[in-house]
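From the shared-data thread, chain only:
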Amino acid sequence: MDGIADMGGTRGWGPVRPPRRDEPVFEEPWQGRAFALAILSSRIACGGINPDAFRHAQERLGRAAYLDDGYYGRWLNAAELMLTDSAVLAPGAIEARARNLRDEGVEEPPTPEPARPDYAPTAEGSLRTVDTTPAFTVGGRVRAKHMSVPGHTRLPGYVRGHTGVVEVIQPAAVLPDTNAHFQGENPQHVYSVRFDSHELWGTDAEPFTLILEMYETYLETP
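Structure, as tokens:
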């Protein structure tokens, strides 16, 4: 989805802090609880595991909810959005409960009738088998399609319209663009595509290569 979540490859965010060697999985105890709550909430809201729907929930957060609350705060915000989307929670229910825990005595909204999507994966995980022949071959040049995406996608904005080379044909997998919206798995061939940094960011960029996993529908022949 085009928006604040698609910040990869863009400038102006400052230096990246590498992890410390002794860095714990969770810096604070609440982060571990937030992680568990987000996973559980996603299962409840979707009726199963759908990481694409969870990513799309994060993409739909406002700028402040996405950036200001930190990584695990973003997970909690996305979990709340998924629970209200599926009517497991009423809008404002968490805020009202938090205020009552502070003895503010506000009225909590009634619990709605759940409206979870009638959707289930065809198998565990995301790998699938497809009968079609891959459209592209190892060593072949491909171009990432230049397209605007109103919904979820795993096609980064910074690579659209640029040309790379297929390094590996990976196993076919569920297409996130439709799975996130509960519109079918639509499994496709996946390609590891190598891009040159100068192709992506111009001749002033530091020289290196970048390999991205690209679904077949993201690619075209140059």
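The longest helix spans residues 29-46.
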